[in-house]
Amino acid sequence: MARFSKFLILLTVLALVFVGCGGDDDDAAETTAAPAADTTTAAPAEDTTTAAPAEDTTTAAPADTAEPIVFASSLPLTGEFSGVGAKHKDGYEFCVEEINRLGGILGRQVEIVIEDNRSETETAVSQYERFINVVDADVLFGTFSSLLGYPTSSLAEQNGMVMGLPSSGAMRVWARGYENIFYFQQLPAELTGSSIVDLVNYYTETGVIDEPLETAAVVDADDFFASAIANGFKGAEFTVRGEGGAEDRQVSLAPGYVSDMGMELVYEETWPVGFTDWLTLANAIAGAEPDFLAVAVTSVDELLSMVKALETVDFSPKLMYASQGTQSEVGEELGGIEGGLLIHAVWAEEANWEGKLAGQPYTNVDFIENFTAAYGRSPDEDEAIPFALCQGMEQAILGTGGTDNAAMSEWLHSRQGDPVKTIMGDFVWGEDGLAEERAFLVNQWQDGELKLVYPVGEFDGTADMLFPMP
Q1: Residue 200 domain boundaries
Q2: Which position has the higher pLDDT, 437 or 95?
Q3: Which residue of 243, 246, 302, 412 has the smallest Cβ count within 10 Å?
Q4: pTM for this structure?
Q5: CATH code, 356
């Protein structure tokens, strides 16, 4: 378990930092209809004649008369994060469609309310306030990005609401000692680079990497998530903001994953929100001539711009990692120049994990086949993550016999030995809400296809890594 040693040390440091809760403010947006037209939908409110059963009732009311269970999420459907936000919407809605197709939860159909926060923090906070106080949602589903997840998870915690988070991996989100937030990915963002270290060590030992990687460059967007990943590679410090009157604390990630791989950091840069001068950045990277390049982006659009700029200046490192890029549009847009690019992943088509839905086995293969039939295209991880989160929340409702959020939180925290089972594997969480005993997968673009290149041999269909990058 060597790969987790830095994680355990960091959590020990953070345990000294944990403090109370905090919140934020308001604004509003549009509502997106929940299940698709071919879904078996819940009866409308005006047709309801029987109240929903009490949480401890042993006999569920018929599905056509019971009040629906309401999920709610604010997602960035427009603005900076819209590409990923739209896919998260599909993942959430498809899960609800599948639950209803399989009979609902506790004899009740499910509805989901999704609103567009326009990639704005104040709008997202306002919408979750409305979900809690006006919509009276039973369960809150998290949004995309640490930038939006940080304040909205504070609001959920203040109101005693469980919130599964599909992203929001920056450690600052998890270092606040919250009891009701649960991360549906592998590791916090600062520790993402550990899987790249493992990959480099493995392929060096097997001789695929046949020449030393001596120098590195790390570039990143000025964003919670992207900066957190970059800080892990560089061994920088990050701030845990004091809440409830506590002082801010600095936590060091030294020496960093670049150093762990035996490389010298020869170039680093952070670009601001709205950055467009990609050619200048690409020229600066090329001038440093790094063997390894880590690019921490907030969106697929940023990655596409970076790769195209590197091609324009005719520079290719021996090995390149990006924090996003598993989406199908990367291969479509770049037309082959993405070849050799590494991306960490939480999900892959090759990983046939067995989850549960509606109390029945529901594998990753089931998800891929059913999603493809419903949407006419294959899913990627930005649809798989929210689907897995929805699976987890559904299992918490079934496990507690209702939607009491305090009971659901306690149930989710008690999964040691009896994990939540999803299409992304088994989940158990520590006191801080971070998943335990998990590591990232690593994919690589090869000949226009995304291949799982690490870990090797754990799943059928893994491929050898290409080196050096074409």
Answers
A1: 190-345+444-454
A2: 95
A3: 246
A4: 0.79
A5: 3.40.50.2300
